[in-house]
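> call design_seq(struct)
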């Protein structure tokens, strides 16, 4: 264990997702030896993210404005909504260039063991969007893992009573237990093209 600020930095870095104790230590010592201008740029970038990034009022994606660029884009198909867990999943699907509709970011997946139920996600907002707009298809693009499947199953039950609404799920091709952000564009593109009704 190191003294004072060094250990505090390691501890804080270790709280980041995907950063273990060894990685936190490596990053901390890299930062200690970094040029002050590099540290200033990092500080500024972190400050800008905290002060200037908001969640879109419509879909929940990250944005610099109250409404994100995808929701503002009149060329996007307003009748198709792709439901994803996190903003990073929007980027993964956008990279495929297969989907021309809009998105709805839930802000996570159902995980009762961690205390995440429907009320902690943006499910109510999704139902309000579908009830108030001319949406004809909802594509469920939750992660192909236990929590993602549970979320998709729950949403299917909630959406089945909307008249004229088709609910589809991404097709096979995505590995079970994986995350969308790690799928390559070809696999994710095929999964979008071959989506199926649920």
């Amino acid at each position: 264990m190191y003294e004072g600020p060094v250990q505090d930095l390691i501890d804080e870095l270790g709280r980041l997702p995907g950063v273990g104790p060894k990685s936190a230590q490596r990053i901390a010592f890299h930062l200690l030896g970094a040029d002050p201008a590099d540290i200033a740029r990092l500080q500024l970038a972190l400050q800008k993210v905290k002060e200037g990034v908001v969640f879109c009022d419509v879909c929940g994606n990250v944005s610099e404005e109250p409404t994100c660029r995808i929701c503002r884009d009149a060329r996007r198909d307003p009748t198709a909504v792709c439901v994803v867990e996190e903003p990073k999943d929007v980027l993964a699907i956008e990279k495929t260039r297969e989907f021309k509709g809009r998105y709805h970011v839930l802000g996570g997946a159902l995980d009762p063991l961690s205390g995440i139920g429907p009320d902690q996600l943006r499910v109510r907002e999704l139902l309000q969007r579908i009830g108030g707009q001319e949406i004809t298809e909802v594509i469920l693009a939750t992660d192909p893992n236990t929590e993602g499947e549970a979320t998709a199953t729950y949403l299917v039950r909630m959406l089945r009573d909307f008249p004229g609404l088709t609910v589809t799920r991404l097709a096979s091709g995505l590995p079970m237990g994986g995350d969308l952000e790690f799928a390559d564009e070809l696999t994710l593109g095929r999964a979008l093209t071959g989506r199926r009704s649920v």
